[in-house]
Write a structure and sequence with these properties.
Two copies of one chain form a homodimer. By secondary structure, chain A is an alpha/beta fold. The first copy, chain A, is built from eight helices and seven strands. Chain A has a single domain, classed as P-loop containing nucleotide triphosphate hydrolases (Rossmann fold, 3-Layer(aba) Sandwich). Helices cover about 45% and strands about 20% of the residues of chain A. Chain A has a seven-stranded parallel sheet, with helices on both faces. In chain A, α1 runs parallel beside α4. The longest helix of chain A has 24 residues. The radius of gyration of chain A is 17 Å and the shape is globular. The interface between A and B is large, with 37 and 37 residues.
Chain lengths: ~220, ~220
Amino acid sequence: MLTLEADVLAKNNALAERNRGWFAGRRTLALNLVSSPGSGKTTLLERTIREIGSELSISVLGGDQETQNDAARIAATGCKVVQINTGTGCHLDAEMVNRGLRALDPPVDSLLMIENVGNLVCPALFDLGERAKVAMLSVTEGEDKPAKYPHMFRAARLMLLTKIDLLPHLDFDVERCIGQALQVNPRIEVLQLSAKSGVGMDRWYDWVRKEWAAQRQDSMV
Amino acid sequence: MLTLEADVLAKNNALAERNRGWFAGRRTLALNLVSSPGSGKTTLLERTIREIGSELSISVLGGDQETQNDAARIAATGCKVVQINTGTGCHLDAEMVNRGLRALDPPVDSLLMIENVGNLVCPALFDLGERAKVAMLSVTEGEDKPAKYPHMFRAARLMLLTKIDLLPHLDFDVERCIGQALQVNPRIEVLQLSAKSGVGMDRWYDWVRKEWAAQRQDSMV
């Protein structure tokens, strides 16, 4: 089983490099949004598209076991979106993203948001060719999640603490949560926001703009 | 890959039958709690143990990628608990439960609560020998989850809608959520509760008592 897993990951990693080259060639920033089900990935995307979608030319590649629910919500914002249904599958892999890109055909100088299957475990292992994984954690999930699911928070460059408008109704220790994230990944960046109230969204946009500019630099090579 | 997956599941299913026989022999009801991370499995167990733990002689087998956090919380209630760390693994399988049972050694006429890894995807595929899977969904996760993760809600006999004390602060349509669950699994039972406020816990206990009695009947065969 371990050998086979290594083979599967090696094949995935090669295809991920191909995707990475394609993103560089097209000067497209690809971010891989990962989280538990219901942490607010689609809601974050809806607001982000509304507020900076035309500035950064956003398109979306979404993964879900079943339904086109999220794609319909994204399409309603006017954004280009392709949805991949994974069936019993628990994550997106580089090959699915490769196929999705052919259908989506994102423009040059754009931002591709990959909305992974809601799963805080398996997507940590799969490189899709993205520039960074963004791990979202809603404050309703409890502050111990980075310690309990360390692989995801080690794989991520940014942690977004979401739904902070609900903090007054919860026993959630923000500082303790950030401390646990830094313990498993001392280099992780952390932002707090609510895509419902809008608080904290500006700093998220600044982070995205910074990565977008960096991707364009890297594309020169 | 598909052949291998079938082999893995066939081996798992055989061991699951062995576990099921052991549970019958020991007149022990085994329930497999499955949900996203942070849906409140441990909080539900803490209150359940406090309120009916001695009546039904509860012990707990817990799975997590890392940490003994949940085991420490359960142990603080005075309950027998064994924690299995799965590393990069995304679910408990029948063999892990088998090993866990040797360490836990639950008594005759008891209730074993298996707290699975927080993951709404992969644990759906793995029979552990339990009498029933109980899928928990917190109302902060959004009402479309049964449609988007249908395999889990098809595999479950009971859906617990948790954290309903937060409903006044959310846009969550309870009826729509239950409708989606019934669409993927017309036979699923649904209970609503909050392990924090205590509302709805009585009906959960009645469900558990009914299954406990039924397991004792089946153990006569």
